[in-house]
Amino acid sequence: MQLDFHYYATYLAAYLAGWSHEESLAVCYSAQFVDCCSRTFLKAVKGPVAAATTQLQLEMMDAGTDLLSLQDITRIWASFHFLPKDLYAQPGRTTRLYRSKYRLICGPYSDLVRDTVLLAKGRSPQAAGIAMHVLADTWAHRGFAGTPSLVINNTDSYFYELTGEDGELKEKPIVFRHNPSAKDNPAQGIYVNTLPSPRESSVMNLGHGRAGHLPDYSFMRYKYLPAWGNYEELVKDNPAEYMKAFCQMVYALRFLKEEYETFSPDEFDSEKTDPYRDEIDRILRKRQTDASEDWKEFAQKITGREIPPFDLGLYRKAYTEAPQAEKDSTAPGRFFVAAMAQKSMVTRKIFRSGNLLAGVSIDFDKYGFSGIRDFYRLIEYIRNDSLPEEGQAADDKISEN
Amino acid sequence: MDQASEYKEKQLQQRRAAYSLRLLGSVTLAQGAWAVIKSIMSVIDYFSGFFRQFDNTPDEYSFFIRGVIYFIVFIIILAVFSIRFYIGFSARADSTGAGKTPVYIVISCLLAGLYAFSLVMSLLNTGRLSSDPADYFVSLLLDFTSLALFVDLIRSAKTCRRLRRQLQEIRV
Fold first, then answer.
1. Confidence (pLDDT) at B54
2. Burial class (CB within 10 angstroms; exposed 0-12, middle 13-18, buried 19+) of A124
3. Predicted local distance difference test score (pLDDT) of residue A224
């Protein structure tokens, strides 16, 4: 998914779930920030690089394809953008390596989604924002894995857009171009994807690169043959799935607001969302590559409040201007800790399932193992089971702007 | 198995056969291209020595003979490649449903028969084994590979066409 859903739709979901305007802004800002918190950004603000939640294209170009680099890539992408659906899936008689990669395929309704939301319970709005980003992406990125793998993530020329009504669907072949600087042209059915690479661990085969931006467009309905699918078609109905993602976000945010005692990954909210379903559906089905304006207008109409555009500089400024002792109390500081918690949780689960693609996970707190310095603050965070004293400065700035 | 499941299962099998057919068609094209390159290299090597006999008294007649021989050899090489060219492209077209006639399957059967014959003759005639064992085994391997290629191509083509017909009947 992209900014329109991660920022504006998440804001609306939080507001409908009963969060205040300021809290909703903190949640949605954090949700969108997951797509921006790269190592480059963290080094610029002198933040903990272990809290990286994404990798820029330039960083990917410099990334190696040795074992450790691949594990590093997998840790980030599987933890925040391609949450595995079933870490114990059995794909039949396969090699161990293929089975490990197959088990990283992303999808909704997973135990890890439940764990992600539970991890954010009682934590900061930033933790909730990260959880919402991860939850939403399990719907959009269904069928792809957060590890570079040709045999899992590859696609071929069998790629069709589905148009028309459900009773009379028409198939239109999708033409992919490999020009990274060109824009997609939905009107002519021309889209950009990554170059085909025959190397198994090429970054071209990471995530949904081979399907271009199609999974992130809410209006797209398409079908293709995933490499792991054994010649079976995978049909993606993004408008319907995005609607489910939105309803599940509202339900999750109501749970985080303590309206519910338990969270189940196969439940959705209808009470708060039904009155707006038609309008949301209209926005989702509108044929446009960026629905930000529509979501913003709709959210502002419901809340009666102005939603500031997403500004990466706010977190940068808040973190760099804070005194060293208070950095963890700022909004970006809380985001970094929550991101490390999420990454630790997912990596630990992957490792404990017998899968080494995300590397080795060591319980620092339990074994007193001196490891990455960045994670010391995470251990303190878990030990105290509370946030550092919350500083309001950064959150206020976001809502004022 | 109800009709919907049966249709879906046949669809999967047909797709698998179609992908296999397309791949084998591409391999046939590549094999043909390699056969051309190999033949040209062999011809150049052989006729260089052959024509050296005429170089003592070069005249227009010897140049003409040379030109005619090269031209005939070139036509033969082209014919050899054209057959594989036709089979390869027909297989690829048939994999997408664009191919109509099964002529390429018949030609593939003939070629498969020829390769099988060549393989059997090579196995029976072990005289070359003592004189040039490497060449003997490489030839055997290539003949076997080509035979396997055409057998698999024929099998995939027939499966693909049969299932496509059955799927059309079910749809109707």
1. 59
2. buried
3. 95
The full set of domain ranges for chain A reads 3-147+245-400, 151-237
C-alpha–C-alpha distance, residues A146 and A149, integer Å: 9
The sign of the torsion formed by the CA atoms of B54, B60, B65, B66 equals positive
Q: Which residues contact A118 (CB under 8 A, 6 or more apart)?
A: A263
Q: Which residues of A touch B15 (CB under 8 A)?
A: 225, 231
**Phi (first) and psi of residue A106, to 5 degrees:** -80, 150
Q: Token digits for A95?
A: 């090699």
- With a cut of 70, which residues of chain A have pLDDT below it? 166, 363-377, 379-401
ipTM associated with this complex = 0.72
Rg (CA), chain B: 22
Residues of B in contact with A232 (CB under 8 A): 12
Q: Which residue of B has its CA nearest to A233?
A: B12
CB–CB of A269/A247 below 8 Å? yes
* Two structure tokens written together for A70: 């691949």
pLDDT digits (tens, 9 = 90+) for A308-355: 999 989 999 999 999 988 888 899 999 999 999 999 999 999 999 999
Which residues of chain B are within 8 Å of residue A225 when distances are taken between CB atoms?
A: 15
What are B162's two structure tokens? 């049969």
Taking the Cβ of residue B63 and every Cβ of chain A, the question of whether any pair is shorter than 8 Å is answered with no
Alpha carbons within 13 A on the beta-carbon side of A110: 27
The minimum CA-CA distance between B107 and chain A, rounded to whole Å, is 29
User: Average model confidence (pLDDT) for chain B?
Assistant: 85
Give me the count of residues in chain B: 172
Say what the pLDDT of residue A365 is. Answer: 58
Digit-coded pLDDT (tens) for B135-158: 888 888 888 999 999 999 999 999
Cα three-residue angle A276-A23-A115, rounded to 5 degrees: 85
Q: Please compute the mean of the pLDDT values over residues B131-137 and round it to a whole number.
A: 81
- What is the Cα–Cα distance from A236 to A141, expressed in whole angstroms? 10
> What is the reported pLDDT for A394?
40
Average pLDDT on B61-87 reads: 81
Interface list for chain A against chain B, based on CB atoms closer than 8 Å: 225, 230-232
